[in-house]
TrEMBL record, chain A:
InterPro entries associated with the record: CbtB_put
Transmembrane segments: 24-43
Annotated source species: Streptomyces phaeofaciens
Pfam families associated with the record: CbtB
Protein name in UniProt: Cobalt transporter
Keywords recorded for this protein, A-Z: Membrane, Transmembrane, Transmembrane helix
Superkingdom of the organism of origin: Bacteria
Length: 73, 252
């Protein structure tokens, strides 16, 4: 009812500080690359380039590839 | 302690990406799939002379399990990358709360990762696109995506540099204008691709592209809201504060 009259200090918590780059870097490098590999398999594998032979990966994610905007056959 | 925060944000980002992917999957299935089917119908009616290719994965699997695999992996992967970008952005782009930073980041990502490349090289349904040019089209699409993301990062840094001189408002205006000019130049100089068959129904193409855009708006919008909430709970894990506040307010 009267929440909006509460002093602003009670409703605005302190902003979190910066995270040091040296703490972010190892996660960013390892997981950044892992995530990009996942995106490659969804978006481009067995299109212009192929790591796995055949057409199975391409055919399985075919609809997703078209609808997510990746170039497809 | 800080490394644990990064890990925590990464896990939350991937979970938020999964949740956003589920929302986007619903949009993709109900808005997008009907036009994929119409486009395949067009493709088949025009390929009658050719011998039919062997179907490796049936249409009913492609449009359900296959679609889900693709969209959910896409959501989790971009969720993870966005969470890592969030770790860098938090407290560095400006004085924004955890939730506001998340929404700002996901809005920028929608624009830089998807909308900007889409305006030059839009999503195409089956039957649109020549199989022989897949290499060129893939290169140009990813080039446009990387360029757009790098320019967005550069514009953010430019804005931060100019802010002390011009003030936040004008620094932001200049940075966004610089981004728009650079993207305009890229649009002008990169080759045009138009492989739409002459008699392909315009409505199907338009509706397909709109639904592709709707999928991304849902994905990034959902991600911004869910991840912002999860990040906020990480930084302010005190439900007790809220209930005390309510109790105090109620007793007044």
């Amino acid at each position: 009812m009267a929440q909006h009259v509460a002093p602003p200090t009670a409703t605005t918590p302190a902003l979190p500080g910066k995270l040091p780059l040296k703490d972010i870097a190892p996660w960013a490098v390892f997981f950044g690359i892992l995530m990009l590999v996942l995106l490659y398999f969804v978006g481009a594998e067995q299109g212009a380039t192929a790591v796995v032979s055949g057409e199975d990966v391409h055919e399985w994610v075919h609809d997703a590839r078209h609808l997510l905007g990746f170039p497809c056959h | 302690m800080n490394s644990a925060t990064v890990r925590n944000l990464l896990v939350r980002g991937m979970l938020a990406g999964l949740a956003a992917g589920l929302l986007a999957l619903v949009v993709a299935y109900f808005l997008g799939e009907p036009y994929v089917d119409k486009a395949i119908g067009f493709e088949e009616s025009h390929a009658a002379a050719h011998e039919h290719e062997v179907e490796l994965v049936s249409r009913s699997l492609q449009s359900t399990a296959g679609l889900a695999t693709g969209v959910l992996i896409y959501g989790v992967a971009f969720g993870g990358i966005a969470a890592l970008a969030y770790c860098f952005a938090l407290g560095r782009v400006g004085r924004f709360s955890p939730r506001a930073t998340a929404l700002l980041l996901s809005g920028t990502a929608l624009l830089a990762v998807y909308v900007v490349p889409f305006l030059k090289y839009p999503a195409n349904p089956p039957a649109v696109g020549n199989g022989d040019t897949i290499g060129k089209r893939t290169t140009l699409y990813f080039l446009m995506m990387v360029l757009s993301v790098l320019l967005a990062v550069a514009a953010t840094i430019l804005g931060k540099r100019l802010a002390p001189k011009l003030g936040t408002w004008y620094a932001t205006v200049v940075a966004v204008a610089a981004f728009a000019v650079a993207i305009g130049l890229a649009y002008a100089f990169l080759p045009v691709i138009n492989e739409v068959p002459n008699d392909f129904p315009a409505t199907v193409l338009w509706r397909f592209r709109l639904s592709a855009l709707a999928i991304q708006v849902t994905l990034w919008g959902g991600f911004g809201l869910v991840f912002g909430e999860l990040a906020d709970r990480l930084f302010h894990p005190k439900p007790a504060t809220l209930s005390t506040g309510t109790a105090v307010a109620a007793s007044q």
